[in-house]
Amino acid sequence: MTYREAVAHGEKVLELSHIADAKTDAWLLLEMGCKIDRKFYYMHMEDDLPDDLLKEYELAIKKRAEHIPLQYIVGETEFMGLKFKVNSNVLIPRQDTE
Fold it and tell me: What's the pTM?
């Protein structure tokens, strides 16, 4: 499966699970899970995603489809310009609860 196909597949799975920002979440899971940026993606989108990264990405998509917050899946979030490590034992900081 190519990088482009992986994102499209991830987006479709998330849409079927009624995830509001399916396209954004599918991209962010690929970007953070595979440690790539958009420049790399556009230069290599027709290349095959390595099997180990594909498995990690599919697992992350599955978790997100189960409505697990994106921040818990990637293990971090940004709040007021700072990065925080998060897991299911902490509340995710939100701007409106500042």
Answer: 0.85
